[in-house]
Amino acid sequence: MAEITISLPDLIRLQADARALKLPAARQVRSRQAGLQHSPQRGRGMAFAEVRQYQPGDDIRSIDWRVTARRQAPHTKLYEEERERPVLLLCDLGPSLFFASTGAYKQVRCAQAASILAWLALWAGDQVGGIVFNTRELIVQRPARRKKSVLQFLDTLAKLQQHPGQNEGKEMSAENAFGLDQAIAEVRRVAHTGSRIFVISDFMNISGDTGTLLGALARHNTVSALRIIDPLEQHMPESGRFAVAGPDGPVWFDASNSRFQSAWRQKLEEHEQALESCFRMSGVSSATLSTAENPATALKPLLGPGGRIG
């Protein structure tokens, strides 16, 4: 039976999975300030390193005129990029993520992936924050470089997951429900330029505006979409009668019904085309995480040496 929810203690224990991703990596770290690590990566702030004598090819705009006048020879300022930066995790715990045919529910995989990324970012000296939402709540946690902040974020992930039967007898208008587009707009409002952002969702509820919103977010930040999928959504069985659990109870379908199979394939193709267009239009990179897959395994392609978040 698929794992439906995940608790805060289990999310905390995912530190072990995060440590397993931190393979030994030889690198030299120079720091003038606690928590700052230096790396030539895009989107970081610039920190002053030193002044040295001007060399052919140096940018003349970086000439330090005071030192030049004092030493009677051209000197230039050198800068290097700071590796500390905000890492924001947008986590979709909406109704479509209350589902799985195997492994663990999508909302569990979302929380697990976010937890591993949060621990890795904290250990790298980055600031960690995020936005977690379901249809009824959207909670923003601004980035901070403290273990307490990560624990608060994980607690939010645990609390906002859906539980069987919790929506029975509860009606909520579409106007008052939170969705992916609203969450992306909120991330853009709180993100500082140069942030590293992960959007973790099944992207089942994209709209015509999603690509534009992601593109605006990616204009000044590095954004990756981590799409959570279930094998049943990609490959429908050819026969048999199945029940799929949902927030409002089980839904039955007959896979041997040819009309149902045709409609399913058409809807799947239309969604895949729309999603491909959304990612291409926005310019964000994308990866997938299956409900049947270990999240740490799926995250490896997104990470650099030593489990570094690129």
From TrEMBL:
PANTHER family hit by this protein: BLL2464 PROTEIN, DUF58 DOMAIN-CONTAINING PROTEIN
Q: Which residues form the DUF58 domain?
A: 50-272
Instruction: Write the lineage as a comma-separated list.
Output: Bacteria, Pseudomonadati, Pseudomonadota, Gammaproteobacteria, Pseudomonadales
| Listed Pfam families | DUF58
Q: Which SUPFAM superfamilies match?
A: vWA-like
Q: What protein name is recorded for this chain?
A: DUF58 domain-containing protein
Q: Which organism is it from?
A: Marinobacter salinexigens
